[in-house]
Specification:
This protein is 5% helix and 66% strand. It is built from 5 helices and 40 strands. The strands form 5 sheets. It has a 28-stranded mixed beta sheet that branches. By secondary structure, the protein is mostly beta strands.
Amino acid sequence: MTHIRIVILLILSIASILDEQMWGQYAESADTIVGKEFGEIVVKHDAIIHNGSHDVVILTPAMRKNAVNIAEVAGKLAGFRYDPSDKTLEYLGEKKIKILVDSIEKSYDEVKQLDHRRFSKMDVIYNPAGRYQDFDVVLNLHTKTNYVGYDLQADDQVQLMPGGRNGKGNDFSYSDGSMTFNYVRNKLTFGVYGQYIWQRNGTSQYHARHYPFNDLCETDIEQPRDKPTDFNKIFSAYGKAFVDYKISSNHTISLNGYYQHTKVNKRAYQDMSVVSPAAQDSYRETSLATSTTDPVFDFGGTIYYVGHNKRWDFSATAEIYNVKNDEYANVERSSGFSLPDNRIARAVTALADADITFTPSNEKWQFNFNYRWFNYDYRYRRMETDKTLSHTNQKLNRGMFTASWVPLEKLTIRLSGGVQATSVNSGDGVEMHATPRADLYMSYKFTEKNWMRIYYTTSVSQPFLGQVTDYGQFTDSLMYNQGNPYLRDAPFHNLNVVFGLWNHITLRPKCGISPRSISTIYEAGYGLRPDGEEGYYVVQTPYNTSQKYWGFRIDWNAPIKDVWFLSGAFDLTQTYARFEELHRKGLAFNVYLSGQYYMSRIGMMCYATYTMDLRDIPTPQANSSMHTDRLYLMIRKSFLKNRLSVSLTYHTPLHLTSGKSRERLHSPALDMLTWSNNQFRMDNRLSLRIAYSLHHGKKVNPIDVKQLLPE
């Protein structure tokens, strides 16, 4: 009888461990009892559990199959898309995705390459409230219980340009290397992340400008394809270290710091045919604009706390960033005109956030309060004289209260309301604006695999600090840029209905409106120009304009027999823009198709991806059109027991679209046509990526048999 009791207690103890893992489809065989190891235990259960506010995704062997990192696993979920060529992750076409690891905030770059074997499940939180309300989706990755181990990922990717299309000697165009190391042991997680990027790229863009008040016409002359008009060189090095410490089972603190060095060189060349009232015949004139951003320093740090106490959950964050750059710029024309502009730019950013959630005992209600404070200080100084050109300070205070109600197991309703207040001090006084915010979210689960979500959201975008500064400057002899201290925050009201079908298809009708989005308006100015003459010139000023849109999107994926994975998306959006009596509209159409095939005999993954982008983007004074598409092929082979991965990507020269981009601008001060065709620059491009991954880890669940014996 005693032996039967021991067997029953052992079975119950194993079941309780599986219960802690949310009934995952498999459990690793690392747990031992009295020196005997149990085999793999399989429990049948739905891999995706749809709750009202989020989904719980159990990482099953089927999801992990053929995936090399956690981002690829997430890319297999309905509505998600992972692009292996550039390692980006999207949800319903949006990239505003926040990643958490055990509820601690991380950047996507430092998480995307982590080995999926470390994690047991992930929470997918759609339309999140509280501190993450500005994101479309939050992924919270859960490390296996009592996990001890490390992850090391290092990769380098290079791209080769064919045929000198970046210009002579510039075929080698891109190199991107990164390294991630994480060590996890019970209460402590330590990690470092480093990345470098070196690239040079060339594009060509041409303009035909007519200045009505000056009766002046400047038309760019197209250059040979192997002589791009615009050329950029970028070098960036980034390093970050963090420590996460679990004070107890309910309290965790995280510290991290980073340092970054990014140097950018830009060159823009114009060969123009000019028609001027002062000349009887047209003449040629060239213009060369160069700029260099040379960093002095760029560093920052964050402290983050997350806790739980009975029915209370809370978190707090404090961040500070400090950036200083030397900026050199010059515009020269063959006529002798020169406009140098050398400055020192300094920016200090501070952020604090507090979030509190209370769940009553009946668990049908949940209440959340979030408060965020943000301060951004930015100044320009003239390099030669050390004179302050502009000093602008921007502050944000936002408070949001959220109430969630679950009247039925299948139904969840959430309502949020609050105020976002912004103040801008540009030296001549303080401009203060307050914008109300409201969110309404409803989720209904028809079956375990079919659901519907309806959500109305109010997002508020702050203008860039350069848009509200009181400082203006000439960028050429007739072009003047200036800020608008009276520019207000841009609220956007969005209504989305999302249907999920069979865990493989999402349908999303959508619409939205912004009563004061932000657009650049071209106006006429008069006064002393940098060419030494007094006359008319063009003033570019950001204004609050209005915008609205409607559209429809469908995403789908179809895994077939563990060797095929097919996915695709179709998106159609109509947009309208208006400012006073000016109004325009544009239609955007996007298609994405992808197929993956796993050749199990040789351990090779084959990819084929096609994208088409046909869009017409309106502003109150202009329409920008673009017609591009791309078909790329990729193969990936693993070696050394999947520790070493080598992939080769080929961008084919096959196209269904022209590749042309055009913008037509009409304003009282300037009529301009801008055109380009850079689609060919990626034709026949080869990208080689070598990645090395070293993973070692296991669950450690010590069980004392004496505690299981009956008294």
